[in-house]
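BUG: 3D viewer hangs when loading the predicted structure for this chain

Environment: internal workstation, default settings.
Expected: structure renders.
Actual: progress bar stalls at 90%.

Input used:
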Amino acid sequence: MPFYFPTDRSVFSISGEDAEHFLQNLVTCNIESLPEGVARAGALLTPQGKIMWDFLVLRDGTGGYLIDLRSDLADAFVRRLTMYKLRAKVEIAESAKALAAISWQNDSTPSGLVALDSRFPESLQVRRHYGSAPDGTDDRDGWTALRIAHGVAESGPDFEPGDVFPHDVSYDQNGGVDFRKGCYVGQEVVSRMQHRGTARRRLVIASSDVPLPAPGTALEAGGKTVGALGSVAGDTALALARLDRARDAMDAGTPITVDGHAVALSLPPTVGYRWPDETADKGD
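Structure tokens produced before the viewer hung:
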């Protein structure tokens, strides 16, 4: 079974009698419906509806929550939570249960605090292990390839904080944003995009006959930019693209290229959105 042992993630504990209400009113995902043993994508947005902090949230087994996010964004995230805290009975602290490993295609019985990463199909058994790591060989490239194959974006390689709306990076597809719960920071803009169907940038998978260049390299068609690469694994990459511009290029027979090399674009396998002239977006 493959493993990845990340070293760039931090985990924070959100506890206290108001913890659930506090988070539910701030973040994009539904905290109240979060099952035990599941890590759900979530984000804290700007008032303009763009993602400033992306993370996974899970129940800690004792009535509180754990937030799993990039270490380099953690201090600013905690400061923002503290600003919103006011008189809420909430404690925010770094957890001793650090993210120790990620495993997938794992049919063994896990020990310790383990949560299924709900951004992936359940059949893959993508698990996040907190506190103690199982034995295994690190496969960072395998983890990147898995994320690409299933259209799972993360800030850093795939987008920068403050640059994308939740729809851009499939939060409307993977449970990372809930359209039925009450208000949260940036909710008005995100709900408007959902109801009007105005999301134009979407995640796609780019494939080539040659190794692809670094994240951030532009996707071009006819001398115009249609998107940019994100995470790269050999000749395959996740990319954020304007679907309308990419589709126009494909319909016109205009090659889509990266550094002069042709790429083919496809949609991730489990998404509900389609190319502009196909079935309308079916995100929740």
